[in-house]
Write a structure and sequence with these properties.
This protein is mainly alpha-helical and 196 residues long. Helices cover 70% and strands 0% of the residues. Helix 7 crosses helix 8. The chain is elongated.
């Protein structure tokens, strides 16, 4: 197995691009090599198989889509109220919009995990870990609402992200005078997160 970490990272990022554009069926070593602009056969030197590539894409996506620690630190200087939770949701939306390819690849991973039990187990563990981490962060930060608020907020934002990044026209004008996505983020947080 080849050990050049920069080349491995470039191949994983190329895999994310292929996954977002072509779906899981299009994610082949040959397609990754072509996307990365490397000789045919390179990816097969870095990954033991497609499952290994999927696992490494999962790990990389969590890095790419993670919040910026400096942004979190700045936000945490604000009062611990609904407006802070709303600001966190705006940050989530902004990150997903900036790295649309990464988020679409994450959605493709969900679909592929549904088809492949071996991927489903590891991906479920990964996504569940993210949810539990979010719940713990919410509790430790002293934000309003408990675990139920975090779970419902997670589900609502997942739906908004799905629509906004795949079929944005579905939401255009659905609530007159409410902007997409920012106005909808405000509405979601306002309905779910208690005032104090």
């Amino acid at each position: 197995m080849a050990g050049n970490p920069e080349r491995r990272a470039a191949l994983i990022d190329a895999g994310i691009e292929v996954l977002a554009r072509e779906g899981a069926r299009g994610l082949t070593f040959r397609a990754v090599d072509a996307e990365a602009g490397v000789p045919v056969g390179t990816a097969s030197n870095y990954f033991t198989g497609r499952d290994d590539l999927f696992r490494q894409i999962d790990t990389r996506l969590h890095v790419r889509l993670a919040p910026d620690p400096e942004v979190i630190a700045e936000l945490m200087t604000r009062p611990k109220d609904r407006s802070l939770v709303t600001a966190f949701m705006h940050d989530l939306m902004a990150r997903a919009t900036r790295d649309r390819t990464g988020y679409l690849a994450l959605l493709e991973m969900r679909l592929e995990a549904n088809r492949r039990p071996e991927l489903r187990s590891s991906f479920t563990k990964s996504v569940r870990g993210d949810l539990e981490e979010g719940m713990e962060f919410h509790r430790n930060a002293g934000l309003p609402g408990g675990d139920e608020v975090v779970v419902v907020l997670y589900l609502a934002m997942l739906g908004l992200l799905l629509e906004h990044l795949t079929l944005p026209e579905v939401l255009d004008g659905v609530l007159p005078g409410v902007g997409v996505p920012d106005g909808l983020v405000e509405r979601i947080a306002g309905r779910i997160v208690p005032e104090a």
